[in-house]
Amino acid sequence: MVDYPSVNWWPGNLRPYESRLSFLARFAELNGLSARACFKFLKVTADERTPLRADEIARLSCLLHEASPSIHAVFSHPIRFADCEYYAPSASSDPRHFIRYCEPCSRHGYHSYLHEAGWLSKCPFHMNELKSVWIPMRGGTLPEQRIATLRRVMRKHNGTWPYYGNNDFLARDESRVASLENWVRRASCAAACMARAEIWRSGDGESLGDMSLAQVFGQLRALKATPRRIKSLLAEPGGRWYLESQAFPHSARVELDRLKQLHLSFSRRKSAATTGSHAGSWYARIKRCVAITDVRLMLHSQS
Fold first, then answer.
1. Pairing of β 299-301 and β 98-101
2. Pair 17, 142: CB distance under 8 Å
3. Whole-prediction pTM value?
4. Which residues are CB-neighbours of 277 under 8 A, at least 6 positions away?
5. Percent of the chain beyond pLDDT 70?
């Protein structure tokens, strides 16, 4: 005797690069659930920035009869700037009070997390400019209203949503999406290495706000050149930046490590050195080690 499924879902129903929002909206629609009931039943949130633990992925894989890698891809996006710290685009650049979508994709009942990435201006599948729809706050929480808004968008452009025909349109130019994924991964690795190796950077301890997308992508492009075929996808290509490095003597590293062990920031120690009673000797020594008046962030703009 074959057991009936506990939910209205089937293997392979998850789509490549599908957004968490799209999955939750389709699951709720297929099972006659409100957005709030859907979150409670699946024990997940609509926040794209909260990945699931391995045991939670295994639980959903068992419930939905979907492969674990497919579940993982929905809840932890493969195309993202990971471990870049301040070199990555700020999360605040991603839309929260409106939904971005590609109209040709919506005709296929499809919505990707790449549509919601604030650092992209075009759909990587159709090369169309992304459209935006504001989320009206008519009662309920913002996540609930996001689900309701995406439902309206999909129903407007696709009469069979939440069902769909096929995913052939996603495979028409897989090489462009693969190129985007490859560059994001390589740029992320280079930025992560840069961040880990830093001892000090200009502006440490200051509240400078989020970097603009122009600065972020100017720096990332200096670390790893952007392939020509994906440049037009970016919301901001970035200015003309270059990477300049200078080798300092080992004594400079020793002196800066000593300051770190004393829990003193480099900028604070510099200030103390120029105003204290022994300023002259200390300042001369550290200046000889690290050329303090010339130390700057390693990435510079040509503008």
1. unpaired
2. no
3. 0.80
4. none
5. 80
